[in-house]
Design a protein that fits this description.
The chain is of the alpha+beta class. The protein has six helices and 16 strands. The strands form four sheets. Strands 11, 12, 13, 14, 15 and 16 form a six-stranded mixed beta sheet that branches. A four-stranded mixed beta sheet has the order 4-1-6-5, with helices on both faces. A three-stranded antiparallel beta sheet has the order 3-2-7. The chain is globular and about 65 Å long.
């Protein structure tokens, strides 16, 4: 059953709905030509966007001027050919005064966004967060400026370019190869909220080696047969979650070696299915023995895929 474990669905933030059109990032003439009818996604300082009916509200890019401003980032091209840009700016109401809107960030909106909006908001959030923290060259401290449609920054004095930084992290479902899986609770999480083991990849380390190390450090188990499942961007602020499953031995005792995990347990498929039926941890019954992470996380997709594997 677990030998052929696959994700049942594409993780919510991994969905593709627009053409990233990377060739337009360096084609200044094409970017300017498309600006007049381009659309604009506004992301405020709290990484919130305006939504309407499960879609991100997109305004007119030309309202910012005759050409893309330096602080705008190119997000891609819609199926109808229009360009989409993103900016860090206060949110503005849509053109339709009767439209019902709500203000949400990606964590709370991921499960209601359509494919195009999920891609645009995830990309904009990641890029704009990077620009906020990358305004100076790490080598000489000189101010840098955006280039390539916001996909790089350059030191005007030296010509040295910096590109968006991504911090890879592994996340792993540990199971016994049959009917039980390990879930763990971090120190700062609410009581009964459990999830998978995760951690950042270290320098000189493969994803698979990171899985073995993180599981050993966090809950003391030695895992084998580490297998890849899928990945998801996690722009909070700039991570990429890389999902795996691995085999562990229920007879091996837990030990919490790095202080991050305070509780772990083996749960059966039936127990996990019951928790999944209860909904996301924020909406499930307060008396539930087990609460699981929200639908936006790849952890949820991995847990569901294992729980309902054929």
């Amino acid at each position: 059953m677990t030998d052929n474990l696959r994700l049942r669905n594409t993780p919510l933030l991994s969905r593709v709905g627009a053409d990233r059109a990377d060739e337009l990032r360096t084609d200044v003439d094409a970017a300017i030509a498309g600006w007049s009818d381009a659309l604009l996604l506004r992301v405020d300082r709290r990484n919130q966007v305006l939504l309407s009916g499960g879609r991100a509200v997109l305004g007119r890019a030309a309202d910012l001027g005759e050409r893309p401003p330096d602080h705008a980032v190119f997000l891609g091209r819609l199926p109808d050919g229009r360009h989409v840009w993103g900016v860090r700016a206060p949110l503005e109401p849509p053109d339709d005064p009767n439209a019902e809107t709500e203000v949400l960030d990606l964590r709370r909106a991921g499960q209601i966004l359509d494919d195009v909006s999920a891609q645009l908001v995830a990309t904009a959030t990641a890029l704009l967060n990077w620009h906020d923290s990358a305004r100076f060259d790490p080598q000489d401290g000189m101010p840098t400026r955006p280039i390539r449609g916001g996909w790089a920054r350059v030191n005007p004095a030296t010509g040295r370019e910096e590109f968006p930084r991504i911090d890879p992290a592994v996340i792993c479902l540990v199971h016994d190869g049959h009917d039980r899986a390990v879930l763990a609770r971090q120190r700062l999480w609410p009581e009964r909220l459990f999830s998978l083991i995760a951690g950042f990849v270290e320098a000189g380390e493969s994803f698979e080696s990171c899985v073995v190390r993180e599981v050993a450090e966090e809950i003391g188990l030695t895992v084998t047969d580490v297998r890849y499942l899928g990945s998801q961007p996690w722009p909070f602020p700039r991570s990429l979650m890389v999902g795996f499953h691995a085999i562990g031995d229920p007879a091996q005792p837990f030990s919490f070696n790095d202080g991050e995990i305070v509780e772990a347990a083996w749960f059966t498929r039936d127990e996990i299915r019951a928790a999944l039926d209860a909904g996301d941890w924020g909406s499930g019954p307060s008396s539930a023995r087990l609460l699981l992470p929200g639908s936006i996380s790849i952890a949820r997709e991995i847990i569901e895929s294992w729980a309902f594997a054929d």
